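Researcher: Checking consistency across runs. Here is ABC transporter permease again:
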Amino acid sequence: MSAATAASSGARARSLACVIASVTLATLNYGITFPLLALILERQGVEKGLIGLSTAASAMAVILSAPLSSRLMLALGPRRLLLGAMLLSAVIYGLLPTFPNFWAWFPLRFILGSCGSVIWVASEAWINTMAPDEKRGRIIAIYATASSAGMALGPLLLLITGSSGFSPFIVAAAFSLVGCVITLLAGRAVPRLEGRPSVHFLRFLLLAPMPYLLNLLFAAVGEAFHTFFAIYAVDHGTTEQRAFMIMTVMSLGGIALQYPLGWLADHMNRRLLFLLCVLVSIGGFLLVPFAIGAEYLGLALFFFCGGIFAMLYSFGVIMLGERFTGSDLATASAVFTLMWGIGTLTGPVIAGAAMDHLGSSGLIWTAVALLLIYLPIPVVSWIRSLRRQPVAVEE
């Protein structure tokens, strides 16, 4: 009997609400600290390339700590692991302003990135275990919406706290501690992931390549777009301010459209909806050169396509929950996070090289090419889903 089946509906709802709220606070902190640390280093006269290298310490931590995350989760359980990661994050937020040094921040950011890896792995396994399949799309959509909202609100909080002194770090540490309290309020309806995974860590890539490659490409395309879009926009005759506005509108689309798309995922063929989202994402990137200069129509297009593209991540999490349970789900979630880390590191590198050879349009062609390479996988998955559907027989 699964945890989702054993728990009462009220206890399950409280458990899911608590873990989603905790992760929202964690993403809110990342929305605060990433721009905050970059601003502080720039004021110290650190070169932008080195600032990027400092940021990469967090992504490298995600890659290196993902295999350990699954083992810790099987040993401690999702709740204890989540509590430990948030408590350690609160400590790191207190140490960052105490040692405001470029070199001192490398190990601190590495630890913070490792905590983030643990938080994503534990929360995704927790949510997928507690979510009943008939509501999985909507629950994952709420989770993704809350996480996106937290990341988007982070920079806005910096307007209140400022970027100097201890204030923003104290706020981040406080959010982590509040997240710990909320996690404790989940009650007894907490998943227990016991036993050993059925196969070796990296063998999971062969068992479910579709969600893993999806998360890698989603992270690669998304990170490349956020890194270089402002440069692309200026090269195509618009202003930095409009570029930032477009990126904000795309984020808002990701927040607004998650639940409607999650509802559709629970009420229609999920593989067909997934294929349509990939196709719309490809079409959206192809239309960027035409939409970037269009006023309100262009913003509407970015809003819609940004929301569709953001749903690709949710589909990856949904597919993990469909495919794995128990200890396998713990390890599968860790591999999923590993692929995200690889994507965030490689995406900007690939797009940057393409832009060096093809001009700024290389950014768009990189996004389109990566999604086109992936396209046959959802096509085949949709065709197979049609074959599995029962055929009605007339009496």
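Researcher: Does this match what you'd expect to see?
Model: One thing to look at in this run: The chain has a mean pLDDT of 86.
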